[in-house]
């Protein structure tokens, strides 16, 4: 059906970082599309200039110096990167943070996890520059305090009243400094916002121009993300307001009477006056998701769609299957924003991503050439990029591009410059692979394209399979300027059969804004169980929120029949953290449900889809009630094409390079094609804003609306031999990692325990037939390389007793275990006709309890291994395909037969998680079999060896470089608090790039639990080598190939089989890292401890590790309040801690001055005070209470840690480093964690020394659920 003809001009505009896209419908129905630079000295504002040009084209005289006449403008819709760019570049408003006293550094500490585990330095800067602490405190209910009713259904207590008098003076002081924007974060304000509202009223009265209350910006539990969101809002909203003021000034009467709507991060439009910073970060990309969702998804067949938006710097991937997929907390540029956002994953290479040949690998990005200088072909001396590779292959045609390149911005794309840049890469490839057949420029360019494609396939697989979807059953909706050249290859690699490219794909984000609905959302927190007793309250809250949404949309001019509302409940199983935002759509109300629908059935269905099971006997809790109201605009912007009756006109024929070599390739103009045209590949279809490559074996046709639909053929498989091919090496690197990643997703989906499902405390890996590690993902530092020891032990021990259908279970330190709760499940992979395993797959997961003398199986005072839980050396968990439940149950309960010990306290979770580990391994076997079926066993095993050799090459290069700078022999020593030495001597061979790491002279095995199994030292060594290499390399057996490790038997680093080891895993591992870095001069000592704290009684139990100070390095200050090296555990949010456990967190802030002085300062530790509200037992397992973290090269050491117990009846007790002690209500545990050492003499401001540098910053901000999953996996 043809679109209704507009009476006036309708504008939909996406103001991006480089280009601004304009989609305009003119009176009479004519569509005008244009692209212009977002920044240009010839005009002030790009969207205004775009509107001016469209008006001028139809004869309206519009001088630039005069405001535009709005009489003929029907509406304007916009998305903008103003907020995103301000966040990325830290160019927002000056902000002060106002926070509950005792928590001034809460947002600095955050989750305490570092964002990239191998980056020793980089951490994102805070958005605020001043902190005000205010006296006030609400806590969950306690019998001795005055209640204050919360809006969640919980009762809060006024523990400390709000002191506005003292606050006034602090606010006036901040105003005097010129700060006019304020973010307010008071603990538990999401449940009762009264204190925040009083603070906000005072601040506005004093003259603050913008105040962001955390309870108003996002009324959800968890103080850290809510505080970050309030800061982001205070930081960005004034920037948006300034931009909007400038935009309105370009129009007569400042756009009065013209509906102006802006796209929010959740995919809905909102009036300009309601557009705010916290909801604006994905404003532009959200329009693209709406665009492909509306135009590609067909309700009739329900085939889901993957959105593939490839721009200049990066690629965005998303999914649509009839409903928008939202996340409710996501991180952009280091800032967690707690607000509904479309799940748009910025994942990989873009057209401007730079090409490298590093250590034998083809590498694409993440660094980008940007707009200036841009790719080499832009004629500004830029580096080789993906765009240059496409140009060299004939896939981009300069004659169809505007002449806007070169210093004068008046030249065409330069193919010669691209060829020169790729020729230089080809020479480096040849030099790095002597003796091999030299690769041509085209082969090198094609190799980089294939590697870029595989890098983009990996996250698409993860996005679909993580939620139980089949990737191949999706349509690939391609848009963005660079995506059309890659779409066929990516769809083919993923098994997809159809690619859809909208006729406005080059400006689809702008077009999506023309199609979007206006959205108003309302949400309130909740703390009710989903059960009949609560249904009336839930229905009442839903009705109130629906009414709010309807009134807000009616005020914008929508009639009642244009308004739709949808209710959601944020649901989770009790005693879990995995909440799902569920609509009751498709689940009508029943007598046993709310009036709004059967949310229990919806939750169970969604949970089963995502995780493969439900927990039917567990209560379901409602965290939030949300209603999304939409005002449908009913706008349609498409008109059907008439068939031409003629064959498609070939504009020209060019030569384009494919796997088969150069092929004659016809070129067509999209505007000249009709809906009866079919174009077999190879072909190129060119639009004004994009180039579409139809590969051989694919066929493009036009729909009746003029969109391009490509049927993707299977293509001819190219023969791959066993000889090393650097392109295939890079592709296999991605494929091997993808196997490990997908195993991890299956484990996370099917496990039941909090540790594995939510904390993601597990690793999955692929091993060769000799047990050598091939790929390990994601990377938990203390697991790195350790599983290799476990697999190789089983091969040596069992030999020919390994049969198909067997699955092994092991955790013993002598068998490569780290500590007993880490259970490793190993499955051999067999192939027909081969008698022995051809690969192994394994998964290691931290089980919350496996018995022993204390709950949690991590006793601070254990003296023998049997006190720490159940032990498995070579246990057949599955035998001949049968899960040995009875036998493994007996083994898990066996510790209970020892006096003072208990069997596992959580048997059902153990069994469920072990089954999940078996399932994850089975997925690995399936994926290995698919890879062998595609390439052949010989090729896959050969590339396993090549990948290991590649990691070996990178480590050898690093060791040669070190020997050239510092000499061939180095040594270092540090001591544990009991005086046990850790000694290391390293002898480097500069010619071979090899080294001997000799730990001879390290202390004897100790009568305690700080003994570290050999596997721990190897994990620490791999971690250190990866940090020192300074770039992404495959983490596998090859990392240790150039290294010989000598560890004396019977020492603290290789104890006897029955020695206690739990402290070795969490404490000694840190000291080993400090000693290695000391020997190499990488950085000063970090806190050297994980500060393990456990408390509980017969009703509750809690465990945490606590951050400290990081060591400074030759080019950086140590980070304060962060986990370092062998751990990266996230800490429980203060509000969640106080809701679930009988404690009050009185204080959590930096321990100022505890970092060592130096040219570069060590990071400060933290002070953390817990007040107990019930009788419990407190256990502490810590280090660096007697031996300070060393400084380096003249830097001062960091401060010692201290564990104090302040008894409610007076005395203060130093608990020492390792103890268990009963505590009573009113007792306070004060934990002061160590600081990091300083680097270089204090006061010396000389040049930075050579040495390990922090990793180069990425050139695009990763975001989306895939990024959050990886961050969570690395934060364990």
From TrEMBL:
InterPro entries: Hydant_A_N, Hydantoinase_A, Hydantoinase_B, Oxoprolinase-like
Chain ranges passing through the membrane: none
Any one Gene Ontology molecular-function term assigned to this protein's record: 5-oxoprolinase (ATP-hydrolyzing) activity
Domain called Hydantoinase B/oxoprolinase: residue spans: 725-1242
Region (Disordered): 1234-1259
GO cellular component term, pick one: cytosol
Domain Hydantoinase/oxoprolinase N-terminal: 11-205
Top-level taxonomic group: Eukaryota
All copies of domain Hydantoinase A/oxoprolinase, residue ranges: 226-521
Compositional bias per record (Gly residues), positions renumbered to this chain: 1234-1243
GO biological process: glutathione metabolic process
Xref: Pfam families: Hydant_A_N, Hydantoinase_A, Hydantoinase_B
Family: Belongs to the oxoprolinase family.
The protein's name in its UniProt record: 5-oxoprolinase, ATP-hydrolysing
Annotated source species: Cairina moschata
